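Quick one: co-fold with thiamine diphosphate.
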Amino acid sequence: MAVITYRQALKDALAEEITRDENVFVMGEEVAQYNGAYKVTEGLWKKFGDKRLVDAPISEAGFIGLGIGASFLGLRPVIEMMFFSFVYVAWDQAVNNTSSIRYMSGGLINCPLVIRGPANGGTNVGATHSHTPENMVANVPGLKVVVPATPADAKGLLKSAIRDNDPVFVMESTLLYGNEGEVPEDDEFLIPLGKADVKREGSDITIIAHGGCVLAALKAAEKLKKEHNVDCEVVDLRSIRPLDKATILKSVKKTNRALLVEENKPFCGVGAQISHIIQREAFDYLDAPVHRISAVDAPAIYSPPVEKVQVPNAEQVFNEVRHMLQIKA
Amino acid sequence: MAVITYRQALKDALAEEITRDENVFVMGEEVAQYNGAYKVTEGLWKKFGDKRLVDAPISEAGFIGLGIGASFLGLRPVIEMMFFSFVYVAWDQAVNNTSSIRYMSGGLINCPLVIRGPANGGTNVGATHSHTPENMVANVPGLKVVVPATPADAKGLLKSAIRDNDPVFVMESTLLYGNEGEVPEDDEFLIPLGKADVKREGSDITIIAHGGCVLAALKAAEKLKKEHNVDCEVVDLRSIRPLDKATILKSVKKTNRALLVEENKPFCGVGAQISHIIQREAFDYLDAPVHRISAVDAPAIYSPPVEKVQVPNAEQVFNEVRHMLQIKA
Amino acid sequence: MSTETPETHEFNKGRSRALEKSDLFAHAEDPVNKGMTVQEKLKCFTDMVRIRKFEQAALQSYQKGKMGGFLHLYIGQEATAVGTVSVLGENDHIITAYRDHGHALAVGMGMNECMAELYGKFTGCSKGKGGSMHYFAPEKRFWGGHGIVAGQTPLGAGLAYALKYKGIKGCAICYLGDGAINQGVFHESLNLVSLWDIPVIYVIENNGYSMGTSQVRSSAFPEEGLAARATSYNIDFDTVHGENLYEVRAKTSKAVQRAYEQSRPTVLEIFTYRYYGHSIADANHQRYRTKEEIRHYQENKDPINVWEQILIEEGHLNVDKVKEIDQAAKAEAKEAVQFAEESPFPPPQQLLADVYHSVDNPGTHTNEGEIFFNDRLPY
Amino acid sequence: MSTETPETHEFNKGRSRALEKSDLFAHAEDPVNKGMTVQEKLKCFTDMVRIRKFEQAALQSYQKGKMGGFLHLYIGQEATAVGTVSVLGENDHIITAYRDHGHALAVGMGMNECMAELYGKFTGCSKGKGGSMHYFAPEKRFWGGHGIVAGQTPLGAGLAYALKYKGIKGCAICYLGDGAINQGVFHESLNLVSLWDIPVIYVIENNGYSMGTSQVRSSAFPEEGLAARATSYNIDFDTVHGENLYEVRAKTSKAVQRAYEQSRPTVLEIFTYRYYGHSIADANHQRYRTKEEIRHYQENKDPINVWEQILIEEGHLNVDKVKEIDQAAKAEAKEAVQFAEESPFPPPQQLLADVYHSVDNPGTHTNEGEIFFNDRLPY
Ligand SMILES: Cc1ncc(C[n+]2csc(CCOP(=O)(O)OP(=O)(O)O)c2C)c(N)n1
Ligand SMILES: Cc1ncc(C[n+]2csc(CCOP(=O)(O)OP(=O)(O)O)c2C)c(N)n1
Ligand SMILES: [Mg+2]
Ligand SMILES: [Mg+2]
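Sure, here it is.
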């Protein structure tokens, strides 16, 4: 296993899939000659050329729609959103056209499309650029959404997404791109969509998170162990839809307590759905209500130190677990 | 009080507000000369003319954005979506621009905009036309959403929405337009945003619903009373954001059981959020998990008899309550 | 309004060229027309008649309450679908909006599967899941049937993009309405296809109205017409008298050649007219247009009549033959109605089929976990 | 690439008119310029210098890690904001994209509030909530500062729509980039403003690139340039040498008159250039364009230099005066930095302020219930 960055893991996934399947191509703003706004595609244009790495004008609805049409004929477009927030100018194409086509055609048409890019706050780019719409996308039957937290997951999930015959949204994070981790070098390293990963085992409480919040949860868990001898189980959802309900429920049935951590805005966020599932299917196992930590419920603020407060962090997770376990400071 | 239709109630609200405030105007496709695709604006163009009733080309992003800009200068545009599903082609304007502007300007700019129109399934118009995105909209801080179920609520909420200085989404239903009910004739009849209405009092179980599902809940409640002597309390949310948490919790603390009914697709639907709130804040009062009924989790099907099964109805509510109360058929 | 003549009506002021009567044989000598066999000519006639009879039957069933949702009739516009499709080759694809019955029959879909779809039956082309607006026949290279105005326009670009990507000599025709040209995504598509030399043909079926809004009330456009917006993107354009199948074929064929040979897009504006309302729900369509206007088109510019006249003058058709074709089409439509009536509805279990490829084809993907989130299924 | 001259560089091939040097005094006799007082001329000069010095100071602070997010510098484009704004009257409004510092200072916002905003301070024009991309000054009729490409274009139409609605003689200028013209919503806006006679002026600030993509790689456009897309909607357009303030003013003024007198929109394409990268994060901007190209613009088409030259020739400016203005602007920027440094950050409680009018102004609306859904606040 090599130790590489999350960014490199994504790039490797793209390079391997482009090499493996001639129908795979990457399209987006600045993905080719510029090497990607966040350098996820660095070097790929040089290696694979104009056909496989396509620079697009600032026309998200146009080129996502184009990708949809191309996918009907068997191409497998991987569309980069420079920021995931920009998918809102293409929302009808991205969620309505993609999710409906297979159904409305009675299964005659598939849409093997990947839309990927960073969906996170915490980088002081303001309200319009900091959306984390995994909840909205996952609300739509017909769509799949994954949110990798580690380099290995990024690679394995993106590769599975590209090979999937359904539209898959891969939501990354600019704050994770530079993180390093061990990643299998196997070209066939695939992580199933819909399989959570217990990133830390524990018996006192289950912390469920996805994306960057997984790292906050793990950090908090270490501190809780060290300072309070609390054993947190940290479940990384990895995939929002499909969802690994079994792993969630198994963990909660073991620990009897659940804390959900996410960067989504709270109202109808992913945590809300998981909270419902837990109380619905593990009601008798719960020693306390399911708690949630989300981003503070306001548009993303610019001011750097204040945005730090707005987005969940390890400190908040630490404190919330103490609340839940009634551990005094 | 006059007995009028839901459609007429909306029309009266528009007419009264247009008359009251010269800054109010209605814009949308076919709202003027054609009298509205669903006749909500029938007769208004004739009465108020081109300035107050504006027929727009099929450019939702363009004219919603135009409405936003116009609202900065004090106009109060009421934008009709012929179907609410069409807001997806304008998603960035409708949810990103509207919700961010006040915040990003540090409170200098307001966006008193109403976006209204029918958001419902059950009319066999297929997957792309049948979205009920109140959950997505309510996810976005900065926005407000109301979903009236009765003629009186439709009038009172729409009038409040028009007078509000924040962007408000008013989600109606083509299936309710023809329903009749008593509506106060007072020009100042306003229903506060964020105030639920207990449409039926009861002690055995709380059914929480919004929009058309309120009527299904009420019908089921009558049948449950008649056939099983069960007293259901039916809480009509009316407003999704702001949300009347107090009324919800008060009812659940009384009945100790909650059933959520909505037409939303389940994953991260409104019910998920309410379920989370209830278990979080009334955990010790719950005798059983919170149950939910949503639309069957697939794109809206065309086939008329099958779509009937897809969308929640009184029968389903009836059955679910029996499940929850362990009443045999 | 009633004293207005079609010529003075606001609608026509903005599109006068549409009013001129086309010269029947102006395009008869175009290679694509000159090479037509009698059989091909009759097939075009038959197909147009079949579309009309199919829709007349559908209308009757709709009025009897046999279907739900919308029914957007194509009647009056038949030469566009039939004419354009008739010049396409085996590597060419089409995609259209919700007014899709004509295109469906033109590519060879059967009346049975189409009628059954309107009825919401499991034997429908989309298993009853799509309805009137959502016909599909990928094996006939027909990609729908799309309900969101202009939503199909980048998809059409994508079909053509895929052809080019794969090195296949072919093209895609993407149809849209005169109202649809004002959706932003259409412009984005135009820029993309010009910039990237994509062999797509956008056919604007200009029937003068988007619902109740006449062309001049919804679009600002240059003197040369709606299609002239193409010049903004260096795209070639042309305008077409939509009642004349020869002209439709000739100009479409030119665009197809441009696609094949130069991999360049084209925008065609085809002047046409719908006799019925926007959909059947549009009961008052005689409010926003005059009876005279409708009659004018029916009497002077009916695509079936015009083609009939041409074929009669050419000696390929006579009154008896017309009657025969008519009756055959009517009988076919009647049978389709019966087929639809007798077909079963999809069982409720079908609600969760065709949502995900991975669900319908277990074992073919690395997928686990839950994908549907019904607390309880109602069936 | 290094052997290319600016003239042969792909970028310039697509926009050759931008390369010709403008005749300094070609537009000096235009009424709007002829009527300028010396004071007004010097104010334009001073404002351009102030923009540049402000941004140079901001850049320094950014590089010291004093701010987060993006910083899109306007340096090189100053004559556009200053020239266009300088012809506006008291009922005219403007709105722009994220590259907004120039417009902000041009309308008279103070360096202090602007610098403090970059620092994310509570004293910033948006209380530290908006950052570099989101400056606003409604009382100066400046409506931002918008981050989503072309997202401001219908808003600009709306501002002008409101003026017309209220019967106020005025107009709105909406600025956008050369890359932004390919967003669908801009086209929808163009159609709307032409159809409805809305007095808006779209100013395309064509600096040749959208991030790393040259104009010719992102847009298909007619020979007459990007602005010529306006003809699709019967909108008048013009192109402008953006380094010449006289020309900017003259052509903007003509558009303003059109707006006032005919309530008609205009599209102006102003050829300009940014010396820095797209944002400070765009460190490799010399990869997609040559050093020579940058130098060419700096040496031949710098808007401040050109205006300085004009004012020197006219006898209104000399080297000493220039130095003085320069130093005053530098000092002002330095003070702004100090102001920003010393200002407090917004307290965390500010996170939930300015989200809703109804929350910030209790009692003014019929609102009840919960509006925020934090399970627990972290502060
Ligand atoms: C984005 C969107 N907005 C509005 C509608 C509602 N709608 C359906 S068809 C139509 C009129 C379209 O007119 P045109 O493009 O001329 O096509 P025609 O119906 O004449 O064939 C409208 C407004 C829609 N389906 N999608
Ligand atoms: C809808 C959307 N897509 C992409 C972006 C990312 N982005 C920001 S600026 C920019 C380039 C815009 O170029 P141009 O319009 O020429 O303006 P300039 O930066 O040159 O002033 C891009 C791609 C965005 N902000 N919004
Ligand atoms: Mg039309
Ligand atoms: Mg630019």
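If it helps, The mean pLDDT of chain B is 98.
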